Amino acid sequence: MNLFMSPYRKKKLLIVSISAPPKNAPESLQAAKYFKYLSYEDFNTTLITSKISDGWRPNDDTLKPYLKNIHKVIEIPIWPNRYIHALTSLLCPFLLEKPDGDAPFHWRYQQVKKKLKNDEPDIIYSRSTPISSSILALKLKMNYKVPWVMHLSDPWVDNPYLNLKKKGKSYNKKKESLCFKYADRVTVTSKKTLELYQEKYPEHTDKLLLYPNVYDPDLLNEIDLTLNEKLTFVHTGRLYESRNVKSMLSAIEKFISRNPAAQGHVDFIFAGFADEKNKQIMTNCSLGCVKYLGALPFDKSLYLQRSAHVLINIDSDEQDSRFQLFFPSKLLDYFVAKKTMLCITAEGSTTYDLIEDKYGRCFTHDDIEGLADYITVCYEKFVLGDKQFFYNADVPTEFSASVNGKRLSTLLKEL
66 FRET partner, CA 20 to 30 A, in 216, 294, 319, 402? Predict the structure, then answer.
């Protein structure tokens, strides 16, 4: 051996993540924070992700710094254009359930192998959703015979948003089982999801670990709270299907009807992607205090959260208990802002267990009276100049990206 050469070689870490920076999407923002705090001194890291396209995962240049420690980025096109996607959904809709609409990502497995010719991994870390990241990671695991950590940001087959048909459900059950079998570790974001999989796959209990959604401690808000302008409620994030603004707007209307003088002294601001139904509800609202800004870049979203007095989180309005498994990633950005939260969610949900009477208040979708009463309390506290009411100084370190990024680094090195 050449005495001038170090016997130490950095391990090659391969990250598989369709929704990765600089895409602006909830999963991409979570991936970004974990990427930032991984200990890169021990890894030579390659990221396989999808090419940026329009839609609900747009490019956001403010997220590019989160890739600074990535050695190499390989971008794989998913659909050549929207017309081919539309034609596939019309003629072969079952393909979009194998496992999802990003399926071409794992179909291009051979293309990925060619691009990895000189960067064969020592270990693989995948992040889903979308689940197609897990399927590609499974194929790479089987080929390279190296350890694999599979992260599931949401449940897979048990995800109530999927509405899988018979063929799609059969395919996904089989693939989920295979991934649990061959993954060396499976990480999930919430205690409820962990318990779900411990019961579902008792033979794999020792593989299951909790790696929650996280906030970036470098972004903790140190700006002093001011109460000399309008009382500002802010919601940043996505609104679609049963995750809608109806209850919140009904409560605002009730609050204004009781306190007409407050109309010019309070704002309710909604920012982020919204489906057509929610857009129509907000843009047609006759109340001047309700404003919809549309989608914003990450940095402007952070600024808006910091300018708020109360931050709003809205979970899905569903009776299905599976909706309680989700850990909304926006709650972590809200922790960074250090503001009190108003959450619309089911009792016993992950959101409820985390927030109620600790970092804010929670109400069900049908509790319009309770919501209106709480908005009134916020308004009264604002008029009285009670800063402490709106301030959340106690940010839980268990959700710090620094803490969990180091945990993940340790796990990868141990494997």
Answer: 294
Higher pLDDT, 91 or 300: 300
What end-to-end distance do the CA atoms of the chain give, in Å? 27
Q: Which of 211, 136, 214 is nearest to 179 (CA)?
A: 136
* Pair 387, 270: CB distance under 8 Å: no
pLDDT tens digits for range 150-203: 999 999 999 887 877 878 899 999 999 999 999 999 999 999 999 999 999 999
Q: What are phi and psi of 2, to 5 degrees?
A: -65, 120
Predicted TM-score (pTM) of this structure: 0.89
Strand arrangement of the beta sheet that strand 340-344 belongs to: 290-294, 266-271, 231-236, 310-314, 340-344, 360-363
Please give the backbone phi and psi of residue 89, each rounded to the nearest 5 degrees, phi first.
-65, -25
Short-list 98, 86, 83, CA closest to 132: 98
